[in-house]
């Protein structure tokens, strides 16, 4: 097993890169996810300096793309083009900061069968990859397991997408999986089973990005 790193799902200060890294170190963190889920706030010079300081202090970085930055759209319309732009920009910031992965949400069924939706996500991600590589932004992406019971984004969906695209990695969110399983992640076996599948999908030596949360779980059946 490689080194384990822990950090928050958001940069703790937006004032300066120095202030952000100082807070991370004070709190004992060794990783940080750059938070663009609600929108972009960091420019390239900020990202470059943040990345430089993070490398010097041993802090591993990742980027969370905006929520609307997902692939698998039914129509190649304005929304799809905006999503491509969001993922493109997220990858650009990741390169500038030296982040190891861009986390994104896998999308939605949008009235389709699950297999058809996954095919669409894979097709559009492959097209995106060509665009990113042409710009020198070919960083690894991480498809996050979602917390929607009847939508795209189960662990199985994420594993299927990752297995078909070598540059896409599964990002397990245990709070999401705990919720969608009605509280099933309380013992060792549940964690071991899903981690074993993830290990089979990940390329050897690749960083494995995981989300944990202290969000309270409410049983949907109560």
Describe the fold and architecture.
It is a single chain. This protein has 222 residues and is an alpha/beta fold. The chain contains seven helices and six strands; from the N terminus they run αβαβαβαβαβααβ. It has a six-stranded parallel sheet. α5 packs parallel to α7. The longest helix is centred in the middle third of the chain and has 21 residues. The chain is globular and about 50 Å long. 36% of the residues are buried. The model has no long low-confidence stretch (mean pLDDT 93).
Number of helices: 7
Extract low-pLDDT stretches. Answer: none
Report the radius of gyration as a whole number of Å: 17 Å
Strand order in the sheet with the most strands: 1-2-3-4-5-6
* H/E series: HEHEHEHEHEHHE
Intertermini distance: 40 Å
Name the structural class: alpha/beta
Give short descriptive properties of this protein.
alpha/beta, single chain, 6-stranded parallel beta sheet, 6 strands, 7 helices, 222 residues
Short account of what is shown:
It is built from 7 helices and 6 strands, in the order αβαβαβαβαβααβ. It has 222 residues and is α/β, with parallel strands linked by helices.
Q: What's the layout of helices and strands?
A:
Blueprint: H1 17-26, E1 31-35, H2 44-57, E2 60-64, H3 78-97, E3 102-104, H4 114-134, E4 141-144, H5 155-164, E5 168-173, H6 174-180, H7 188-201, E6 210-211
Parallel strand pairs: 1-2, 2-3, 3-4, 4-5, 5-6
Helix pairs in contact: 1-2, 2-3, 4-5, 5-7
């Amino acid at each position: 097993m490689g080194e384990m790193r822990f950090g928050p799902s958001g940069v703790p200060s937006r004032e300066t890169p120095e202030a952000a890294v100082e807070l991370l170190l004070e709190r004992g963190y060794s990783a940080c996810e750059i938070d663009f889920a609600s929108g972009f706030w960091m420019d390239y010079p900020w990202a470059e300096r943040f990345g430089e300081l993070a490398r010097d202090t041993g802090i591993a970085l990742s980027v969370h793309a905006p929520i609307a930055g997902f692939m698998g759209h039914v129509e190649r319309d304005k929304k799809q083009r905006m999503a491509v732009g969001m993922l493109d920009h997220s990858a650009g910031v990741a390169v500038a900061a030296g982040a190891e992965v861009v986390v994104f949400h896998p999308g939605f069924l949008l009235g389709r069968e699950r297999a058809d939706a996954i095919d669409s996500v894979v097709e559009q991600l492959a097209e995106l990859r060509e665009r990113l590589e042409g710009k020198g932004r070919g960083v690894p992406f991480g498809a996050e397991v979602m917390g929607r019971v009847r939508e795209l984004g189960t662990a199985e969906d994420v594993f299927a997408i990752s297995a078909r695209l070598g540059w896409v990695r599964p990002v397990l969110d245990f709070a999401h999986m705990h919720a969608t399983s009605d509280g099933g992640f309380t013992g060792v076996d549940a964690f071991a089973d899903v981690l074993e599948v993830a290990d089979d999908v990940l390329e050897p030596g690749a960083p494995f990005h995981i989300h944990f949360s202290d969000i309270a779980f409410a049983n949907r059946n109560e």
